[in-house]
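[recover] target loaded
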């Protein structure tokens, strides 16, 4: 039986459907798993994405030709039945289910299985072939429940308030920033967001995700508030003069799955590292793969060699696709691109 998804220079391609999934070069028809910049790129003639992704996609890509599907809703294109299912990664993130000629393939995009207040939970979808990410596909990656991480952030913030110094948390502006805002305790002090985070917050709020009140730094009238604030910004801002307005004693933290690796925090020059990821950890990846019932698994990005080896040892047919994905690699380098 012919494969439903193959590699092409433009990206992952469905030959019978004549469309791409998260292509990295401009194409006629693109199915987009989510609005992170390595998956949703400029220049496609036609985009298909999950309905809750519309606002964040437009916030990032502007006026694109976009068709949306509710989660679980199916359309048939050139005989391929296509439906989108929650991936639990960020608002609007979807796994793409393809059915054709008696085969079912699912392309996961990025995903996590842990709960997240800001997006629909990951839905296991049965399939013959599962195309999975593997960003944190090594046994060393095991996340704590996120409420423990939020408690750690709250404690740090409250202690900084007691010492009249700002708490600056760097994180990915789309997804991580909103999850952090929805998770922390807003009664501790004022919350200030960087301008790059604001349009994403707006899109989340318009989609009905509850976020605490946030202010732009220019809206803060009482300068004492700056010293009590939790400041949410991209890593780039921590390394810039933007940080100075919060005073020389501002404390800095970085929220990312990469903070689990010793040395990453210091390399980035942060006072604190908070292990908070929007990707599945090692047990999460294995749990998601097992739940699909797939006998064949194709790994797209991350620690693909280790994952492929492990899956083969478990008796599965496993391989890898070479892709240009990897938004969390950008996080690790602490050099996020504008708006990402
Ligand atoms: Zn992503
Ligand atoms: Zn990604």
């Amino acid at each position: 039986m012919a494969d439903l998804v193959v590699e092409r220079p433009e990206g992952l391609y469905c030959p019978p459907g004549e469309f791409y999934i998260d292509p990295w070069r401009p194409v006629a028809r693109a199915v987009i798993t989510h609005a992170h910049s390595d998956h949703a790129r400029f220049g496609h003639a036609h985009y298909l994405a999950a309905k809750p992704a519309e606002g964040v996609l437009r916030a990032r890509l502007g006026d694109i030709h976009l068709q949306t599907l509710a989660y679980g809703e199916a359309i048939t294109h050139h005989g391929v039945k296509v439906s989108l299912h929650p991936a639990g990664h960020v608002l609007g993130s979807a796994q793409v289910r393809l059915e054709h000629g008696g085969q079912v393939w699912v392309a996961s995009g990025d995903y996590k299985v842990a709960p997240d207040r800001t997006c629909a939970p990951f839905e296991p979808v049965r399939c013959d072939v599962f195309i999975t990410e593997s960003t944190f596909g090594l046994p060393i990656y095991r996340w704590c429940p996120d409420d423990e991480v939020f408690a750690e952030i709250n404690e740090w913030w409250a202690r900084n308030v007691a010492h009249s110094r700002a708490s600056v948390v760097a994180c990915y502006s789309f997804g991580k920033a909103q999850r952090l805002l929805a998770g922390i305790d807003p009664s501790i002090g004022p919350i200030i967001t960087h301008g790059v985070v604001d349009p994403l917050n707006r899109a989340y709020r318009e989609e009905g995700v509850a976020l605490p009140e946030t202010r732009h730094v220019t809206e803060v009238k009482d300068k004492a508030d700056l010293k009590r604030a939790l400041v949410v910004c991209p890593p780039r801002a921590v390394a810039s003069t933007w940080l100075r307005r919060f005073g020389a004693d501002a404390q800095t933290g970085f929220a990312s799955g990469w903070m689990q690796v010793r040395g990453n925090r210091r390399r980035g020059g942060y006072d604190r590292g908070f292990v908070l990821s929007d990707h599945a950890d090692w047990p999460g990846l294995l749990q998601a793969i097992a739940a699909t019932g797939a006998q064949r698994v194709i790994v797209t990005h991350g620690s693909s060699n280790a994952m492929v080896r492990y899956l083969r040892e478990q008796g599965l047919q496993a391989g890898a696709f070479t892709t240009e994905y990897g938004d969390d690699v950008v996080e690790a380098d602490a050099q996020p691109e504008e708006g990402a």
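[recover] notes: The chain has a mean pLDDT of 93.
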